[in-house]
């Protein structure tokens, strides 16, 4: 299993290639030289975590594990905030069946 290391720097050097776009909310790129995957969350404005984002993260991490990347950088498409945390609207618009899949 891939150990998830959150790095505070961007890997420089080497060409990056797009492995895949899991969904609109996450993208995965792998640095060819280092084998380090970069997983970017993109749910404007503050990457609040709803069921869809959590499912997309889970899918992207599984893809990274299957491709045997050496490490992972989890980052945000927003330059101002990493993540606001759980989307409070998930508590008010709760569909129990939808929450069970997470």
Automatic annotation (TrEMBL):
Residues that span the membrane, as ranges: none
InterPro entries referenced in this protein's UniProt entry, alphabetically: ClpP/crotonase-like_dom_sf, Enoyl-CoA_hydra/iso
Gene3D superfamilies from the UniProt entry: 2-enoyl-CoA Hydratase, Chain A, domain 1
One GO process term, biological-process aspect: fatty acid beta-oxidation
GO cellular component: mitochondrion
Protein name, per record: Enoyl-CoA delta isomerase 1, mitochondrial-like
